[in-house]
Design brief:
Layout: H1 2-11, E1 15-19, E2 26-30, H2 42-73, H3 80-101, H4 106-127, H5 135-145, H6 163-166, H7 174-186, E3 188-192, E4 198-202, H8 213-232, H9 248-256, H10 260-263, H11 272-281, E5 287-288, E6 294-296, H12 302-341, H13 364-393, H14 401-408, H15 411-509, H16 513-523
Antiparallel strand pairs: 1-2, 3-4, 5-6
Helix pairs in contact: 2-15, 3-12, 3-13, 4-5, 4-8, 4-12, 5-8, 7-8, 12-13, 12-15, 13-14, 13-15
Length: 524
């Protein structure tokens, strides 16, 4: 029994032996490993590279899908009906402009601006405690209660007619507010002399200069605002008719004219600063008789700029109508396309509609339709302006032809056409760039796919090489196993022969051993 236990224990050891009675008898054994794991790292490297390539391919395909969507948005899908409606809309807008808008009138702009500014000044004065209704009293009330420090420097800036233009703190702009505050903290006035040169003057009358910071801010901001209102409609001695404040456009031109880049600029053989002064005081646009003598001055101050904005608003009407017709048609037609394609039969099916496809904005199709419609409108407007100005001026060769034509041109329409054309061209350029990027990506994806195939082939050859090596090793192991089996059989035969010869002697030395072995072999 002890011998059997020692045999079982020995099996747990890869190399071991069992000793039998008799010094010349011993069973030895060892565990043979049939295969060893491969230490080749090429397969792991191929797997890592394949994973990287597949990631790049997935990212490239995702980018291609995004490019396809963006290129489709930048592609014009308009058809003949879209073009017909765009042209018809442009014609309708052109007719409205010719019949209803008519000629741009600086007189109408001045009249409208005067009316609105005069009403505004009275209302502001009343909000500050003025009890009257007349404009002159309102201006006097605001001037008396909200003075400006630089008003005392009127003679230094060219007198009553020009000091509103030349004194920068009288400009109703952020720059004017800045100079008003600067005057409070420095005690100096800033502007230009009669030659357009920038100058700084010491404030002589310092009653409107704040004594401390809060008062300086009060005078420089609050008083400045209400003083600007008082000067909008002229002075109290010439309310509603005198020269008011320069508007934002003229103020900006005057401020720029002191910079070195603009200082020596000429317009019609006239220095820029002189041209601005003549525009503001009314001599530049003045009406003249046949001898060239001024018969009526046409000022261009804040009231005029407000009126011009109103005139441009009138010009915007046909532009807005054209916009509404084109965009409305686009939306309705694409909405019906969605109803048809998605087979919408009731309100519950409206959720299937891709509303992005119906929106009349952000795509090349609507931009192209607007380019055509605004181009048609502009062509009709220019033709109408040329015909009417030729009739009014007495022919195309007449000196007044160009001036009369300019007054009839719808500048809002021209501006909208330029914007539409620029957007259309810009989308076309962007589309070309994206298409080139897509071609490059497709080329890269082809190269990556080829690399993937090459790695797959390399993996296959490595697998084939490993299989060949495994087969050779298997054959070798089979040969070794066969030889081992034959040797084992021979040794077993020899051992059995020895057991037969030594059994009687073992039985004598170990009483009952043979019967016990027989029982084990029989019953397990």
């Amino acid at each position: 029994m002890d011998t059997l236990l020692s045999f079982k224990e020995a099996l747990l050891d890869p190399v071991g032996a069992v000793n039998y009675p008799g010094e010349d008898f011993e069973v030895e054994f060892d565990v043979v490993t049939l295969a060893e794991p491969s230490a080749d790292g090429r397969g792991r490297e191929i797997a890592e590279n394949l994973e990287e390539i597949e990631g790049r391919i997935a990212a490239g395909k995702e980018r291609v899908r995004a490019l396809d969507s963006e290129i489709d948005r930048l592609t014009n899908h308009a058809d003949g009906l879209d073009y017909m409606v765009a042209v018809a809309s442009g014609i309708i807008a052109g007719v409205i402009d010719s019949v209803w808008v008519g000629e741009f009138s600086i007189d109408r702009a001045n009249s409208w601006g005067d009316e609105k500014v005069n009403h505004f000044v009275v209302k502001v004065a009343q909000s500050r405690g003025y009890k009257g209704e007349d404009l002159e009293g309102a201006i006097r009330y605001l001037e008396g209660n909200y003075g400006l420090a630089s008003d005392s420097m009127t003679p230094d800036f060219g007198g009553g007619r020009q000091h509103h233009l030349r004194d920068f703190s009288h400009h109703p702009t952020p720059c004017g507010l800045l100079f008003s505050l600067l005057t409070q903290f420095t005690g100096k006035a800033y502007g230009t002399d009669t030659k357009g040169m920038f100058m700084v003057c010491e404030i002589a009358d310092r009653r409107m200069i704040g004594r401390d910071i809060p008062q300086k801010i009060l005078f420089g901001v609050v008083y400045w605002v209400f003083h600007m209102v008082s000067d909008m409609a002229g002075s109290s001695t010439n309310a509603g008719a005198g020269t008011g404040l320069p508007g934002p456009l003229v103020s900006m031109l005057k401020e720029l004219s002191v910079l070195p880049f603009f200082k020596n600029m000429d317009i019609n053989d006239m220095q820029l600063s002189v041209w601005i002064s003549k525009l503001f005081n009314g001599t530049l646009l003045a009406r003249r008789d046949e001898a060239g003598k001024i018969t009526e001055k046409v000022k261009f101050d804040l009231r005029t700029e407000i009126g011009v904005a109103h005139e441009l608003g009138r010009q915007a009407l046909p532009v807005v109508i054209n916009e509404c017709i084109v965009r409305g048609f686009y939306f309705i037609r694409r909405f019906f396309f969605e109803l048809r394609d998605k087979k919408v039969r009731g309100f519950k099916d409206l959720g299937q509609i891709d509303w992005q496809k119906t929106l009349p904005a952000g795509n090349r199709t609507i931009v192209r339709m607007l380019t055509i419609s605004t181009g048609t409108f502009t062509a009709i407007d220019l033709a109408d302006a040329a015909v009417r100005s030729a009739v009014k001026s007495g022919g195309v060769a007449a000196p007044a032809f160009l001036a009369n034509m300019v007054l009839r041109v719808n500048f809002m329409g021209i501006g909208r056409f330029v914007v539409a054309l620029g957007t259309d061209v810009g989308m076309g350029i962007r589309r070309s760039r994206l298409r080139n990027e897509r071609i490059r990506l497709h080329t890269e994806l082809i190269a990556l796919s080829s690399a993937k195939v090459f790695y797959r082939q390399a993996d296959m050859w490595i697998a084939a090489e490993s299989a060949g090596a495994a087969i050779e090793k298997a054959y070798d192991m089979m040969e070794k196993t066969t030889a081992f089996w034959m040797d084992s059989m021979r040794e077993m035969e020899e051992n059995l022969d020895k057991i037969g010869r030594y059994a009687p002697e073992a039985g004598k030395k170990n009483a009952g051993l043979l019967e016990e072995i027989e029982d084990i072999l029989t019953w397990g």
